Amino acid sequence: MLVRIEKLSNLGYGIAKHDGMVVFVEGGCPGDLAEIKITKKTKNYANAVIEKIIEPSMHRVETFCKMQKVCGACQLQFIDYNYQLELKKQITVDALKTIGGIDCKVNDTIPGPEIKNYRHKVQYPVSETKVSKRILAGYYKAKTHEIVNIKYCPIQPEICDKIIDFVRCNALKYGVSGYDEKRHSGDLKHIVIRNSAAFDENLVILAVNSEKVSDNLKNFCRAIFDEFDKVFGVCINLNPKRTNVILSDKTICIAGKEYIKEKLLDKTFIIGANTFFQVNPKSAENIFSYVRDYISNNFQSPAVLDAYAGITAFGICISDVCESVVSVEENEQSCKLAAECLEINKIKNVEINNMDAGEFFAKEKRKFDAVILDPPRKGCTKDSLDNAMRLCKGKIIYVSCNPATLARDLKYLVEKGGKILSVQPFDMFCHTYHIENVAIVAFA
């Protein structure tokens, strides 16, 4: 059938209508006139793929990566970047209206400082071909667990391609086999690289299907370390369970250091194998700067609560414009690294609490001028929001990586008397449908 793509869904599909039914079109760009083929149909909607583009959208461009159509990573690369920013703003607006019933001003999306080579955390699944016995490493093909063997990825630093290719070409020489997901056999499950944008240091983590580190793995790690001057550490992560979790909590450093350093604004951070840290540090700087400027311009020596703090990145970045910062994080390793970061940066006014945010909220008696909420994609529980409002004197700064849960939680805050002062989108993951937002909510 012939359809005109009208807009983009929050998962990056083109949206068209046919006989009153909504059709989600994979690879559709708003403005395309296309012949499509239905792949799934329900009572309420249909899914489709493009058979032929009759009239391309004025926003459709040639992709700069030859693997874009088969790799599931950069869903929107065929759309010109400035229009991507408009679409991400619209995704936020639509979520606020349809999910939250909120009609408020949403600012224009702040672009990423870099739209190539921006991804500083790389996670490649690994497998081994049955006949030729070659190691494959890359992203999964969309909607499958079929690995696309990627030798060059333009959205990550070039050094990452070189490290992965070395692993791909030399693993079997060191007696390290690729993982067979169906049989749950073989050694190497994932290659994970943490790259520092500020210092160009690299930490390589090999996730293996084992409960112990073999001599083969040790020798291979030392070979990787010796091969690259910019590799500061090589670790083994022991992950023998049949699971979708990439890294277990058991990581052993085999060569070099178990962490790298990164810089955000003027602060230095330590990143380990399991540390939650922004994948795009330069875009993250935009977010941290925005929050710090807001606090600096609207408060005098405030007390701020930094919840879901990770390694206390927000707390550390805003510490010089606050009287005090109290951070809450349930991951013990993140709290230990946060304490080291405080020492490195000579920060004395940040207090770290290693506990669940909900439990902390329920026990805490102090009041804060502002509360920063930076939850995972699932958002906050109602109890957490209730307690954040109880502890907050005036402002909640909600940092979200999911417009849907942001809209749901903002709706709840508004129902409880909150007023949305601003919503600011940031492009953290260029060429994907993902969007970060910072919302400021005021309470009388």
Walk me through this protein's architecture:
Helix content is 25%, strand content 30%. By secondary structure, the chain is an alpha/beta fold. The protein has 3 domains: 2-60, Nucleic acid-binding proteins (OB fold (Dihydrolipoamide Acetyltransferase, E2P)); 97-113 and 280-442, Vaccinia Virus protein VP39 (Rossmann fold), CATH 3.40.50.150; 121-264, OB fold (Dihydrolipoamide Acetyltransferase, E2P) (Beta Barrel). The strands form 4 sheets. A 7-stranded mixed β-sheet has the order 17-16-15-18-19-21-20, sandwiched between helices. Strands 1-5-6-4-3-2 form a 6-stranded mixed β-sheet, with no helix packed on it. Helix 1 (81-98) packs parallel to helix 9 (403-415) and helix 7 (357-363) packs across helix 8. The longest helix is centred in the N-terminal third of the chain and has 18 residues, at 81-98. The radius of gyration is 23 Å and the shape is globular. It starts with a strand and ends with a strand.
Throw out a few tags for this protein.
single chain; 444 residues; alpha/beta; OB fold (Dihydrolipoamide Acetyltransferase, E2P); Rossmann fold; 3 domains; seven-stranded mixed sheet; six-stranded mixed sheet; 21 strands; 25% helix
Short description:
25% of the residues lie in helices and 30% in strands. It has helices at 81-98, 158-170, 215-227, 281-298, 313-318, 332-344, 357-363, 382-391, 403-415; strands at residues 2-4, 7-8, 14-18, 21-26, 33-41, 45-55, 121-128, 135-137, 188-195, 202-208, 231-238, 251-256, 259-264, 267-272, 303-307, 324-329, 350-354, 368-373, 392-400, 419-426, 436-442.
